[in-house]
Amino acid sequence: MGTAKQKWYVVWAGHEPGVYESWSECQAQITGYSNPKFKAFGSEQEALRAYEDGAYAFARRHSVPEEMQSTTSTPIPEAIVVDAACAGNPGVMEYRGLYLPSRTTLFEMGPFPLGTNNIGEFLAIVHALALVEQRQLKGLVIYSDSQIALTWVKKKRCKTLLPRNEQSEPLFDLIRRAENWLNTHAYTTPIYKWDTVSWGEIPADYGRKG
Length: 210
Hints:
Blueprint: E1 8-13, E2 18-20, H1 23-30, E3 37-41, H2 44-53, H3 55-61, E4 79-87, E5 91-99, E6 104-115, H4 117-135, E7 141-144, H5 147-155, H6 169-184, E8 191-193, H7 196-199
Parallel strand pairs: 4-7, 7-8
Antiparallel strand pairs: 1-2, 1-3, 4-5, 5-6
Helix pairs in contact: 4-5, 4-6
């Protein structure tokens, strides 16, 4: 009998999102996790790209039905909505945050020479949290459409697979500062998943999806 072909497992939503080389490792991340999202791939490169794209982007590109869970039944009006854009993934990346009622841009960062959508979303969420604290913007919530970034913020760690090199070093410096902020600030601002399926694209969207 031939040797079974190596598979790589992407966990988008689980205890520790990431790319795993065995089913047992993947299974450990999804067992006991509510509404896990994962998929097997035949090559590491394909798995890495799918992980960085996120579950929704992968599902849309490949016409796979993707059930998205939202933490609110309808969008809360008093909110900051964040999004990132990446020319390739990884590629040139930027991110921003908008005040939902007026669609006013509150912050915009980049472009950075090398990044990913999920890194941009992670940094945008932390940027919004810091802005709320700095300006004492009480009563606001934050929305992001990246489940991976939401998990990273919750765990206070940006678990990206982006290579660390001269191009990406400025971004890793921002990641370090964002992780430090999360570990030294007891924020109370609610952070929710934007339900793209039910509500359409998040208003901060750059409108560059193919």
